[in-house]
Each structure stands twice: as C-alpha cells, then as structure tokens.
Amino acid sequence: MDEKKKVIFSGIQPSGELTLGNYLGALKNWVKLQEEYDCYFCIVDLHAITVRQEPKVLRQKTLEVMALYIAAGIEPEKNTIFIQSHVSAHSEAAWLLNCYTYMGELGRMTQFKEKSKKYGDNIGAGLFDYPVLMASDILLYGADLVPVGSDQKQHLEITRDIAERFNNAYSPTFTVPEPYIAESGARVMDLQEPTKKMSKSGDNPNGNILILDPPEVIRKKINRAVTDSVGIVRFTDEQPGVKNLMTILRVLTGLSYEDMEKKYEGKGYAQFKKDVAEAIVEELLPIQDKVKIILADKKYLEEIYKKGAEKATYVSNKMLRKMQKKIGFIPV
Ligand code: TRP
C-alpha cells in the first residue's frame, strides 16, 4: 500500500506583481513537489488586506496569481489550489490561535518591527497579527513541510511555537511543521541593490523583474543591473551583483558556476548579461503566453477555485472542529 503522502502548504499574496524572485524562489520549486507531496497552494488574499488594497485591483491580482500558479506548471488536478478568503476556517482558526499567542512574541517579528518603523502608530492590527493567520493556514491542513524563503522563517518558527503550545495545553492536535528549504541558489536579489532580496514592492522598479515583464523590459533591466568594476565573472560575495546574475543563470540553465567562470573568462560582462537576459526571456515567455490564455477563460479559473475551496473547506473544517472540541466549546 501507498504510504500517506506528506502535506505541503504554501501561499503567495495577491498584492503587487510577482517577480522572478517569486518564480525562482517559490513557484518553480513548487512544481517539483507536486508528484511527491499532497500540496495546498493558496492565494492568501486575507494576508494581502493587511495593507490597503483597491478592490478592483485585488480581484484582478487574485486571479492573476492563480493563473500564474497554473501557467508555471502547478497542475490543478494534482494539487489543491484555492483562495484563502473562500475558506472561512482560516479566519476562525486565527481567532482561536490568537488566544494562544503572546503580544511579546508577535512584537519580536522582524517583519513587524520593520513595518512599524515605516508606519509608526498607524500600523494596522492586521500586520501585527499576520503571523497568527499564517500559522492557521499551515496548521489547519496538518502541513508537514512549508516551503518558505528565509524572510518567512521566523513566521514558521512562531507557527511551530503556537502548535506546540496548543498541543501541550490539550493533547497532540497539530503537526509541528518544518521549513522546506529549496535547493540552494533560488534566492534572487534586487538588481540594483544586490544585497537585498528582490521584492514585489521594491522602491526601484529597475531592481526587479516581473514575471509578466515584456522581453524588451527584461533585457533592459538585466543590462542595467548593478555589477562592479572587477570585470570578471566570478561567484563570490565580494561581487554581489555578478553573483546574483550567476545564480539566476544557474537555476535557469543548470550551468555550474565553474563552467560559467570558464565560459566568460576574459570577456567582461556584456555577453554574460545578454545570456542571462535571454535565459530569463526563454523561461518566462511561454508562461506569459499561458497566463494570457488562462486569464481569458474565467470559467476555467472559477471551476478550479471552487473545487479547491471545496476540498480545502472539508479538510480545514475537520481540524477546526477538533480545535473547538479540545478548547471546550459545545459542538452543534
Ligand atoms: N507570509 C507569506 C509571504 O508573505 C505568505 C503566506 C501566508 C504563507 N500564509 C502562508 C507562506 C502559509 C507559507 C505558508 O511570503
């Protein structure tokens, strides 16, 4: 008999445009997981409203992220793809878990500390509470593994703490999840400030490549990517710009750093940058074409998110009932 597959949960916020960083750091790796694991891939719109969203844009982005999941190769037949707000257990579980979480530990989250620096006292309570909602996402499905980037590791740690606290207060209820660290080299940095992670909300639009950027824009951005005056293609922390481009090229082509160093020896950066740009275009163009087709078929998307919501609702409600029972609520 088949052993039960391990469960994976991950999600991306439908705020802003997804970047090459989201693609190489998350989506491309998720595709590889779908055979081996029981995967839940969520579009986390409840998380997105922790900062103000234009309703029309939010609707559009939610479907766009979903189309990107599918276009990147996540097959709706093999995975549960769903929209977080369709499954009310997430919000409900977040309330319950709030009561097993301390202000102190939420206040220590780096992401919250950084955001509060930016917004001061006008920071929304949702941003403070964000990790508890994320913990609910993960714990409701009994996820064993959570693919996350290094910026989300702290959120996964608090998830583990909350799970253990609840388990200890009652009896084993939640699977305590582990981070799933994707193969090395998937961390894509900002093209203008290569010591910072490439992000959707980067201040400098030349710092990121959007999955949906047209080829000429991709070429221009790579051409303008910050390098250095060393002039040698070499994989070292002392040349963070070049290192980042090498990382991208390796993930896309499989070429090793050694071979890359040999290939561009004595040639400066021009051809190297051209090859990086072409590798990106070659990877993203087919995805862009697919996204267009998928987004034009609203019925198809609806079918998938309805089916996803149904499955996710079933699984998460079971866990929610279990939580309620252990806490001491009277079942209906
Ligand atoms: N906080 C994650 C991010 O911004 C998104 C997210 C929400 C998530 N819920 C999750 C990621 C659950 C993994 C698992 O990247």
CATH level 1 class label of the largest domain: Alpha Beta
Query: Main β-sheet, in a few words?
Result: 3 strands, parallel
Helices and strands, in order, run as EHEHHEHHHHEHEHHHHH
Number of helices: 13
- Count of β-strands: 5
Number of domains: 2
Query: What is the gyration radius calculated from CA atoms?
Result: 21 Å
CATH H-level name of the largest domain... which superfamily? HUPs
Molecules bound to protein: tryptophan
Q: Which architecture of the largest domain would the CATH scheme give at its second level?
A: 3-Layer(aba) Sandwich
- Topology-level CATH name of the largest domain: Rossmann fold
Unreliable segments of 5+ consecutive residues: none
Shape: globular
Q: Strand portion, in percent?
A: 5-15%
Query: Within the largest sheet, what's the order of strands?
Result: 1-2-3
> Could you tell me the mean pLDDT?
94
- Label the structural class: mainly alpha
Q: How much helix is in the residues?
A: 40-55%
